[in-house]
Amino acid sequence: MTTPKLANLTAAFISISIFLFLSSSPADGATATSLITGTCKQTPDFNLCVSTLTADPRGPKAAGVQTLALIIIDAVKAKATTAYADIKRLLKTAPELEGPLKSCAQQYNVILTAEIPEAEEAVSGGVAKFGEDGMRGSASDADLCEDGFVKVKSPLTVENKVVSGLAAVGAAVIRQLE
Amino acid sequence: MGDHNQPFLSVSGDPECAPVHDDSVVDDALHRPQGSSKSKLLLAVFSGIFVVCLILAGGYDKSGVVKIHQLEGGDEMGVGPMEMPAGSATTRPSVSRGKSAGVSEKANLSPQQLLGGGEGSGDGLSEDFPWNNSMLSWQRTAFHFQPEKNWMNDPNGPLFYKGWYHFFYQYNPNAAVWGDIVWGHAVSRDLIHWLHLPLAMVADQWYDVQGVWTGSATILPDGKVMMLYTGSTNESVQVQNLAYPADHDDPLLLDWVKHPGNPVLVPPPGIHHKDFRDPTTAWQTSEGKWRITIGSKVNKTGIALIYDTDDFVNFELKDGFLHGVPGTGMWECVDFYPVAVAGGDGLDTSANGAGVRHVVKASLDDDRHDYYAIGTYDEEAGKWYPDNPAIDVGIGIRYDYGIFYASKTFFDQSKQRRILWGWIGEWDSEAADVRKGWASLQGMPRTVVLDTKTGSNLLQWPVEESERLRLRSKEFKNVVAKPGAVVPIKLEAATQLDIVAELELDKEAVDRVVESNEEFKCSSSSKGAAHRGALGPFGLLVLSEETLSEQTPVYFYVVKGKNATLRTYFCADQSRSSLANDVNKQIYGSSVPVLQGEKFGVRMLVDHSIIESFAQGGRSVITSRVYPTKAIYGAARLFLFNNATEAGVTASIKVWQMNSAFIRPFPNL
């Protein structure tokens, strides 16, 4: 393949990339559908709710609240997954925090292996109240992790707050399924 | 569906870019022998996509500050029915699952109210309690049905068959939270001493692979058993299936066969495929058909659908519904059964005619409470009408003013009584449940009869076999508690008890006290039992610690209203039940009719982390889940208390130590 063609292709590709980026940007208010805004108004963090839902390609296309609930659950899972990875890393790099970090590992393990699967199964199956339980449980476990750092500064504050806040939003979205 | 047995696997990467990080494709491209130009192109493509992903990922992670201000309506902070302060960085979402449980009014409580942490926990102490194994293992009950571990919810298909009481239940074999639901099974000779059997049904068919959900048993006149149950299909559609014992001669009913033609019912037109579950026991019509009802909803109206069948395989949907009540939402675990106007014995589910009233009961998904109403069944029309529409199903009387859901009755033909099972969930955190390895109990089975004195409510009472658990007793006659008194009731132990108490208010004080226009509800004061009136509260402090650092008051509160009429309320107050902050702290209960000449009477079953309280012979019942940290084992105490300001209380109390029921696996199976 000749160089000019490669350059053209690259240019075309960059244009497509920019287009894709712009059209899927969460900053685009037009993709916050009335379903999303209506649902998010009944949650404790409207902005977090809207931004999370519009950031997911399923969000603006969602036909019902169930899809929105599953998106939030996925977002909690993603955030909890990274938090868990960070905890594992910190256990090696910050041995002075071993106590609370071990508790956090426990709490996030519960979130990832028990509470999120519970929420997914319940929302998919149409028995929303157990989904609420799973989300509330996740929020509480993130709080438990944060509260474990009593006399020292928590290295996980931002992550814990995000998981906790998102899970609270999740519980509120699921509540609307009942 | 999560596989809870798997150890957690490591992070897999940014989900939005997952399809791109397909290493095999990249490897393939890099190793292609055709020449470097093609590989350069592919490299450019992937780099471009990689760059896009970086941008998108970066934008996603910064969902906090930058993006918010660019959103339409981004200044709205989500105020709505939620009472939580929105967007606050210090907000702590709800911890325990007591959210919609345990209040007599449908209050939408904020987490702060739920936790009772009004002053916050900002004194440097951890908000979530450091439970130790001793505290957690104390919570397991001695004589209430629970599996050896993991999660349980609804009672299923209870029946008496060939000398054994059978109990099935929603069970998660993999975790201490709801999920992967199958049918657990246990048998007992006496509804008390249960023996665990292997799982009765698992999720092994396309029509129940997402869950073997709740169902009910019907015993045919020839003795055969038909079990109808809800399956959640591979596409999460709710359908009804038929199962029956593989061997009707096996008294233990170990093995079950699923009808090859399942499902026997699918959601009818107009009914959403996720609003169709929990078929009832069938009853016979005068035409000789079998009739069942299944709960559902249409918009916000909860309804009970009616089907007729000859064979439990082919069903005919009847026009209209058995009944429906606007605004009540989805009706789960509907129950329908006759009660005798004259009280006394229970009735077979098919009983009808003069001297019979019919009860319709529904578990309301919206508030997680069980409601019932008494009324008239018009068999020909396939309809039921409440005696008093003001207290119709879902808007009137509850079986239980504490934690009690998904309940189900069955007719015990061996002793001619109707028996009620109810799922008792947890009021602690899911984290604690996972840590202790189990969640949920069943209530002590209760007989149900019509209250012949009032005619407008049921009476529930622990089955008489519960008295077989009674060991040594101690009697305390005419114990006087002056206004403000707390009187110790000295016992050898106070965690496994059967308490029967009769209390009287000082008559002279009752006559003397002026009329009050207090509008009382158990939940109206955040002080609970510390809120003092002229004639109440008075009752017992259960699972209490010597210095009362932890206490669970269960009590009466009497108000003298217009024309000197007395109104009585029966309440439980968990606000100080535990030093832990991640447990239910609500105050709840209801009014209870106390008739002329009646003393205030209560029977309480205390069994570690469960308290079941029956007032006025079972006219009002409260089940509580309590998780003390200090008032456990030998440190638990019982007190009589009187917080009335004007009247003394005299009580006669009999307390039995209760034995364990030794619930365990069936031996030598």
UniProtKB/TrEMBL annotation, chain A:
Source taxon at top rank: Eukaryota
One function term, GO molecular function aspect: enzyme inhibitor activity
Signal peptide start-end: 1-32
Domain Pectinesterase inhibitor residues, every copy: 31-173
UniProt cross-references to Pfam families, sorted A to Z: PMEI (PF04043)
Keyword Signal among UniProt keywords: yes
Entry keywords, A to Z: Disulfide bond, Signal
Family: Belongs to the PMEI family.
Entry-linked NCBIfam families: PME_inhib (TIGR01614)
PANTHER family: OS01G0111000 PROTEIN, OS02G0537100 PROTEIN
Protein name: Pectinesterase inhibitor domain-containing protein
Organism of this sequence: Linum tenue
Lineage: Eukaryota, Viridiplantae, Streptophyta, Embryophyta, Tracheophyta
UniProtKB/TrEMBL annotation, chain B:
Domain Glycosyl hydrolase family 32 N-terminal: 144-462
Annotated compartments: Vacuole lumen
Classification via PROSITE patterns: GLYCOSYL_HYDROL_F32
Keywords linked to the UniProt accession: Glycoprotein, Glycosidase, Hydrolase, Membrane, Transmembrane, Transmembrane helix, Vacuole, Zymogen
SUPFAM superfamilies linked to this entry: Arabinanase/levansucrase/invertase, Concanavalin A-like lectins/glucanases
Residues in Glycosyl hydrolase family 32 C-terminal domain copies: 468-657
Annotated organism of origin: Linum tenue
Biological pathway: Glycan biosynthesis; sucrose metabolism
E.C. designation(s): 3.2.1.26
CDD domains listed in its UniProt record: GH32_Fruct1-like
A GO CC term attached to the entry: vacuolar lumen
Name listed for the protein in its UniProt record: beta-fructofuranosidase
SMART domains attached to this UniProt entry: Glyco_32
Catalytic activity: Hydrolysis of terminal non-reducing beta-D-fructofuranoside residues in beta-D-fructofuranosides
Domain Beta-fructofuranosidase N-terminal, first and last residues per copy: 33-136
TM stretches of this protein: 41-60
Pfam families in UniProt: Glyco_hydro_32C, Glyco_hydro_32N, INV_N
